[in-house]
Amino acid sequence: MALGYVRPARPTDVAEIARIQLATWRVAYRRLLPRHVLDDLDETWLADRWSAAVESPPSKRHRVLVAVEQAEQSYLVGFAASGPPDEQALAPNEPPEALGPATVAVTDLLVEPRWGRRGHGSRLLAASVDLWRADGFDTAVAWAFDGDTATQRFLTGAGWEPDGAARALDVDDMLVPQLRLHVRL
Question: At the N or C end, where does the chain have fewer CB atoms within 10 A?
Answer without folding.
Answer: N
